[in-house]
Design goal:
Vanillyl-alcohol Oxidase, Chain A, domain 3, six-stranded mixed beta sheet, 15 helices, alpha+beta, single chain, globular, 515 residues
């Protein structure tokens, strides 16, 4: 077969958000091919890439090089980079529907909805493909630029508090684990495919809950994720409302209990609430007088739907604090004083302008418009400690006595089964610190992390965001020795020692997960 991959020598890799620079030796890229309409031809093209991935791993083993696959380079931490060579997976976008004959007779889901997607699919492209079949993802992050494996592997979450985060719609993983081995993983407790599906990929079929839950959130260190089996749902709409509300007892109760009694739901039913999010601006005071509240209610799909008009230069309607603060990059003076605070607050309010629209996920969580270097950190918390954690974040800000462009956001997610899923609490509140990436913002976040730890509040940290607070001891404290040991043992069972070296980077070593 003619090779699709080619090597581009390169000295430095800079992450999309300019949060890091990594010295590298080069990048493996792939030629873009027009997708074949014939299923057999697409399967052959997919399997040819599997062989190329194995060849790249073989070369890396022989040359003692580290290797890491990446998609959109979305992460702000160095979780997804290596010292030597990177693999650009974005040109690899072959998708498959799954014939009923290739599903397990014990599969409990809807066979017609299953989709198997190659590693280069972005969330936006996945949304587009699913939309044509009147299907939808079950959860999404705040934007759609990440690739599916990048999104899943770092536990991108969103705020679908009755469903979970993005890893939770994945039911199968095709993983290239060595020069001569690749596996198809799924849970033994939830079989999805027939043996014939794995055989068509030439992969070893492994049904094991522990292995699957380990590989699900593994940030590129279990080998190369070549394809993912996802479970979409029927296409639906979200009645999305963003408004400023007094930061009162009703909001605090909802934040700490997910009990929406007493909260004005605009005539909607709490049972239909899909997404709940609260953002506060610490520059408006401690406590802030108001919060920007996002409420999104499930509605059935209607074929007369028309996408609403939205300013393409603005952050998407479902944008997180990272996008919102990034959009202010050119508007905020480099030197900030208390005199500038009213202007800063006015700009933030403008970015959080109220809206009321009914849209599908694909038109709600759209492309990020960030212009400059941004900072984002996400801490997973048990619901019962959320208000206490927010109070610490507000107090630390007040005590610093500086004007820092920063937002604090709380999003809520059902707990994941992934062994190192940072949305591990049932349910999880993700407290986000978002701002511009400068020394003051980084110092502020560090003080918040220390404050949570000193208060004895259990918390985890988003793998793909700023998380320099993590080390071996803290990771074990966050996830427990049992989960960490199972994760490490799973990696060791799939990768030989030589291949583990290929997929070990500085980040993995710094958090005590490399062996």
């Amino acid at each position: 077969m003619p090779s699709r991959s080619f090597f581009v020598p390169m000295k430095t890799w800079i992450g999309r958000h300019r949060s890091y620079k990594q010295s590298i030796e080069g990048l493996h890229d792939f030629k873009v091919l027009a997708p074949a309409s014939d299923t057999a031809a697409r399967l052959q093209a997919y399997n040819d890439v599997t062989k190329e991935f194995q060849g790249l791993i073989s070369q890396a083993v022989k040359r003692k090089k580290t290797l890491r696959a990446f998609g959109s380079s979305w992460s702000l931490s160095k979780v997804a980079v290596a010292k030597h060579e990177l693999i650009n997976t974005k040109p690899l976008r072959i998708g498959f529907t799954i014939p009923a004959s290739q599903t397990s007779p014990n599969y409990a889901g809807d066979r017609e909805k299953l989709r198997f997607l190659q590693c280069g699919f972005s969330i936006a492209e996945t949304n587009s493909v699913l939309f044509k079949d009147r299907l939808s993802l079950k959860a999404s992050g705040s934007n759609n630029g990440q690739t599916l494996p990048g999104c899943i592997s770092t536990n991108t979450h969103g705020s679908a508090f009755r469903f979970g985060a993005t890893p939770d719609f994945v039911v199968g993983i095709h993983l290239i684990v060595g020069p001569s081995r690749h596996v198809y993983l799924e849970r033994a407790s939830y079989p999805v495919v027939a043996d014939s599906f794995a055989q068509a990929l030439g992969a070893e079929l492994i049904r094991d809950d522990t292995l699957f839950n380990a590989a699900l959130v593994s940030f590129g260190s279990f080998g190369i994720i070549h394809g993912l089996m996802i479970e979409p749902r029927e296409l639906f709409l979200l009645h999305a409302i963003r408004s400023f509300r007094p930061f009162n007892a009703a909001i605090k109760s909802a934040i700490s209990t997910l009990d929406f009694t007493g909260l004005d739901l605009h005539g909607e039913q709490a049972s239909d609430l899909y997404h709940f999010q609260v953002t506060v601006n610490p520059n408006e005071g401690n406590p802030p007088p108001e919060a920007a509240v996002y409420l999104m209610f499930e509605k059935p799909w209607t074929e007369d739907y028309e996408a609403p008009q939205w300013d393409d230069s603005a952050s998407g309607p479902g944008a997180s604090g990272l996008e919102l603060m990034g959009s202010l990059y050119d508007m905020i003076p480099s030197v900030l004083s208390k005199l500038i605070k009213p202007l800063l607050n006015a700009q933030v309010r403008n970015q959080l302008a109220p809206y009321d629209m009914t849209v599908p996920i694909k038109d709600l969580f759209t492309g990020e418009k960030t212009q400059g270097p941004v900072f984002a950190s996400g801490m997973g918390l048990p619901l019962s400690r959320t208000l206490e954690a927010l109070s610490i974040a507000l107090r630390v800000y007040e005590e610093m006595g500086s004007v820092i462009p920063v937002l604090l956001t709380m999003r809520f997610v059902k707990g994941t089964k992934a062994l190192l899923g940072f949305t591990k609490f049932e349910p999880t509140c993700v407290l986000e610190v978002d701002g511009l990436n400068n020394a003051k913002t980084r110092a502020y976040a560090k003080q918040v992390w220390k404050g949570l730890e000193e208060a004895g509040i259990p918390f985890t940290m988003h793998w793909g965001k700023f998380n320099s607070f993590l080390n071996r001891t803290r990771v074990r404290n966050m996830y427990g020795d049992d989960n960490v040991d199972k994760w490490i043992e799973s990696r060791e069972s799939l990768l030989t020692p030589e291949v583990r070296k290929v997929f070990t980077n500085d980040f993995l070593q710094s958090v005590g997960l490399a062996t």
